[in-house]
Amino acid sequence: MAAPLLVRNHNYRLLFSAGALTNLGDGVISLALPWLATLMTRDPMAISAVAAAGRLPWLFFALPAGVIIDRADRRKLIARADLLRAAIILAIMVLALGSPQPAAVWVLAGLAFLLGSAEVLRDNAAQTILPAIVAPQDLEAANGQMWSAEQLTGQFIGPPLAGLLIGAGIALPFGLDAAALVLAAGLVWLITLPPQMRVSSRFWPALVEGIRWMRDDKPLLRLAVVLGLVNFLYMMATTITVLFAQEVLGLSAAGHGVLLSIAAVGAVAGSLGAPAIVARIGTQASLFTALTIWGLTYAVIGLSSNAVVVAAALFTLMTGSMLWNVITVSWRQRRIPPALLGRVNSIYRFFGWGSMPLGALAGGMIVSLVETEAGREMALRAPFLTAAGGSALLLLYALFRLRLK
């Protein structure tokens, strides 16, 4: 019997450990950043603007990031991006140490935009470096373990830890994240890679080459468009989760952290169980299952006022999400030629992630519009119910048009 991947592959172990550290920090920030925003303002549009600002760089910079990744040393790029993110987090910590003022939320949004810009480079480079570290037959296992670690540290440990740290001081979670990013950068720097085929053409011809490849691959293009709509609905619903938890479920920062941790357990279950699920029912049926799960769980959350029921729905929602991720990321890493992986992967994520800031803004707009007609509580439920309807429409489209070869 072969030794586990983490035991026999030193470079993968370094990348895995670095990812676990950065995702721990991201998990802490996923609660601390919107919580800091709510200390500055209760305006749902302003709070959604902070969430949107963090995702907006995927719309602006995903395409050029792909060319940069294919032209640069991906190992050094990841390490430098983590160090840059650490510096930005320290700036947010300084902001948190001051007295929260409503106008400061826009400064926070600006820093979130810079943080997201560095994340675009870091995350795309991390996905493209994995096929150079592990063998093709190990991609599902490697991606499953990476996603599991991301959810375990980023959602199961990070948010409740943030809730405890916020109780001691709102600036503390940001200091922890900065330290984790610096340590992760050091681990990535130690990775050794085989020689990388670099793009020698100029920027625009290299970008156009990636766009043409993506355009000609119809299954990949359709998958990217569906992912974009899925993530639009996800951000539309979950951007206001912090207000939903506070005002509908009556949770504290620690309670909200526990809610997110339960969701993370579902994500870990989905990540680790995905290979077995795919082996049993097939890739195509697994994708349809994920879409069905999303629609049902959004509806349950939108109709419930019970924290236990919402926690169970979030657990199931994230199980479906990780099932989708493990399947599609592994399929994509095999399908795209190594020399084009950075560019095509970034174009794919332009569709998939570029919609997220638009979804975040849509969530805030829905709350603001519905509140004037139906009241605050119904307004906070409306994004989840809208996402449920949208997911049902996506499932219908996928049944007829989404086929993975």
TrEMBL record:
Membrane topology field: Multi-pass membrane protein
Pfam families, per database record: MFS_3
Residue stretches spanning the membrane: 12-33, 45-65, 180-199, 220-245, 257-278, 285-301, 307-329, 350-370, 382-400
Recorded GO MF terms: transmembrane transporter activity
Annotated localization: Cell membrane
Alphabetical list of PANTHER family matching this protein: INTEGRAL MEMBRANE EFFLUX PROTEIN-RELATED (PTHR23513), STAPHYLOFERRIN A TRANSPORTER (PTHR23513:SF11)
Protein's recorded name: MFS family permease
Originating species: Allorhizobium borbori
Organism classification: Bacteria, Pseudomonadati, Pseudomonadota, Alphaproteobacteria, Hyphomicrobiales
